[in-house]
Amino acid sequence: IIRSIIRSLSVAYDREIILYTDQVNTEISADKQKIYQAIYILVDNACKYSDSDIHLQVKEGPTELTISVKDFGEGLSKEDQQHIFDRFYRVDKARSRKSGGTGLGLAICHSIIQAHGGTITIESELNEGSTFTIHLPK
Ligand code: ATP
Question: Cellular component per GO (predicted)?
């Protein structure tokens, strides 16, 4: 799934998207298309809201599989991080409008991951970038 997302978005945005991964041996029972959509939304956002390389990391822990999407772009304030998964929420309307989204992507991503019993966490600093991490139970 991840390699296919990288292939399409690196061409669409003409961007370097680097994948770091250990050997992952776990199989997860999941809706493949929905998981594709959730990861696609995070990588697409990373491309829209930053200008440099994107780093993807897949890791296997004792109880969960994590997929992190890291960008070095605009970042998000603590206040915005609290609302980012709300439907139709967009940061700074003027800034976001040039990329023409609806504010639904992250809400959809969040509900897909929740439906799989997982969570999404954010680490972000304004003007330094953001890391969105999907945690899926094994
Ligand atoms: P769409 O519904 O078409 O995806 P969108 O990108 O505006 O539109 P969301 O994906 O829900 O919608 O994102 C909500 C807002 O969160 C965005 O408008 C943007 O301001 C902010 N945002 C999302 N991802 C990032 C990111 N990686 N870096 C900085 N800001 C982000």
Answer: plasma membrane
Residues 12 and 48: beta-carbon distance below 8 Å: no
> What pLDDT band is residue 96 in, cutting at 50, 70 and 90?
low
28-60 pLDDT, tens digit per residue, is: 899 999 999 999 999 999 999 999 999 999 999
Asked whether 84 lines ligand 1 (CB < 6 A), one says yes
DSSP string of 93-134? Answer: HHHHHTTT--S-HHHHHHHHHHHTT-EEEEEEETTTEEEEEE
Q: How far is the CA of 83 from the centre of ligand 1 (A)?
A: 11
ipTM above 0.90, yes or no: yes
Question: How far apart (Å, rounded) are the C-alpha atoms in residues 86 and 18?
Answer: 29
Contact 47, 54 (CB under 8 A): yes
What single-letter DSSP state applies at residue 2?
Answer: H
CA 32 to ligand 1 center in whole angstroms: 23
Total-model pTM: 0.94
